[in-house]
Amino acid sequence: MSDLLERQDAPPPTEADALSPSVRQVGRRSIPWIVLGAIAVLVALLGILLTGADRSAGVPLDPSNAGLVGGKAVAEVLRQQGVDVRPAGTLAEVRDGATDDTTVLVFDPDANLDDSGYDALTSIASAIVVVEPDYRALQRLAPGVRAAGGVAGSGPVDAECSVPAAVRAESIDPRPSGNESSVSAGGTFRIVDGGATGCFGSGDRYSLVTTTVDGRSVALLGSAAVLMNDTVGRSGNAALALNLLGAHRTLVWYQPGIADRAVTGPPDISALTPGWVTPVVILLVLVFIAAAFWRGRRFGPLVVEDLPVVVRAGETREGRARLYQRSSARLRAVDALRIGTLGRLASIAGLPQATGAGEIADAVAALIRRDRGTVRAILIDDVPRTDADLIALSDSLAELERATAAAVTPAQPGPTGRMDA
What we know:
14 helices, two-stranded antiparallel sheet, alpha/beta, 11 strands
């Protein structure tokens, strides 16, 4: 294709008509971007389908969450009964919100609270209610209690204990909701040592265990579903929730966050470096900035200067031809050939450089005595569909240029047969 472009160096006429890519070619080039866009939309839709339900459900057992897994129903009823419900996300907020008559509800599914945190709760709260406690919570608050697996029974279970809150509830249904948004799996406990009371059990497995630690009442509730909006209305769930959490004037609804997680691992660089290192580093940075500013002012402003680089016309032509060939840009290639040919034909025919392509075609047809439609098709109208069409059109342009040059050149006289002295 580089041979086809070697006649494009002449200055083009300013009003020469150029052929534009067709809609089909533009669409063909846009196919990769359309495919990528479709893939991105598909991935976004899958993400929405996979995570949309969990996002719409909100934070489990949050007292401000009115969704299916939230705890707003219990919190609002407690407020109507005169209990001061105070949400807390850190241990510091628990300390600030606690009074001398406080129940602390702890729900920590991510195990953010460590042993020292549970020890601190026993010195803050008058009573502690731990929902779905993990192994660490059981070890710190109820060493004689062990986890015993999933919820016991297939329906409501009776209290069968003397705990006042359980007696008022009579029976509860601790099973998690069958709704997709429910995140509570529920659990039960087994008492392996004395000092604890089990309620709502089946055999030796209980959904509620009460005990005392450091003189504080501790209640272990095995299923968060008892407090959730979508299941609190079952059986005696609401009665148990209101009696456990409303026993004192203040309820601190505590959901430990990442701020309560213990910091572990080796010390960072700031703990290992001496105290004088930071001021010295800052001083060195300031000295470097001052020196750079001083030297920069001394050198003066930057001067932009063109580099004396020479690129051969043949290299430029071959490089452009390769780009046209790689992208199948036949229209651009033939436009470049036609622009060069039109400029040279205008010069050969003695026409101004500002002459339009149609006028040049008419003048050339008159000079070489050919059909105007044929000449105009070669110079303007024909569109190459294949590489073979492009080569044929290039040959036609070259032949047209040769014919025009021959038409304006006087005929050379033949030999006379005489010998000049």
